[in-house]
Amino acid sequence: MTEATPDDVRWMRRALQVAPRGWGRVAPNPMVGALVVKGGRLVGEGWHTEYGHPHAEVEALRAAGEEARGATAYVTLEPCTHWGKTPPCTHALISAGVRRVVFAAYDPNPRAAGGEEILREHGIEAVGGVLEGIARDVNPVFFHQHSPLADERPFVALKLALSLDGRVADREGRSAWITGEEARAEVHRLRAGFEAVAVGVGTALADDPKLTVRGPVEPRVPPARVVFDRELRLPEDGHLAATANETPVYAVARSPAPDERRLALEGRGVRVLSAPEGLDEALRVLRLAGIRSMFVEGGAGIASALLRAGLVDRLYLFYAPFFLGPEGLNPFAGLDSPPIGEARRWRRVATAQHGDDTLVTLAPK
Fold it and tell me: Active-site residue 182, yes or no?
């Protein structure tokens, strides 16, 4: 089997930088980037721009035109083989006359997989698995959807805004604003990539949030809002209940709620879900309600509970450059204290600067 060259790796890195431009616009499809390279020159570039629109390979081939014949195509996901809202990308690559296709991650969707074999059957050299780990990190929600966990619970991302000493609020419980405007804009961009934005009821009561996307990316489908609300304390006159008929709001209760509270919220359009057995069941009922990915923004109680239960698939930690001291609110205080050798390890996915704040993105190791 032909192996990837250093140039293949270099071009694939560029394709992987292009892929996330589809953030918030292509789900449930994956974000994919594609390049067409001929004679060491980039002659075409594209990405999946919108659900139902042409895939990345087609966009890159269009940009390349006749230069695609005899060229090498770089794609961040194995070219698809099935007819869906668009024709199969393998067909487009074959018709364009490319000589070689290099791709990153193998497609986990059995309906779309098998592109490598079809390309080879048509005499096109195919090289797969180039920077596959990075490609999977670009599309963690998509790969979760095709994993054994897909039917059990949503993909769960947890965001925390922290001081340097790991506090989410000061000693008076104030958390606005730990991070600056640039970091808050990034949070809105991140929201656009998930099917739901979630908070604990404490945050809902303290902040009366809207949990909408107000930033640089307009999501194709606005995310639903979720409140983990044990005793159904969500106010019926707050922002969430008042807008539940515009964008779905789910209140997940654990204790049996008084009928009048349930009826009052449901009368405003809030969808009340029951999960008496705890957090695992809460995620199951949310998945049954159709939510496949969720961006959890706290507070400290729900963050600690999710981490303690091992239910977090991605951590977004925004660190602000100051200390709040030992009396500040520590979201990690409820975690177990294992010996160092038994502590759950995380790996760094990315680090980025947003104004004065630093975002560290982590995944379970």
Answer: no
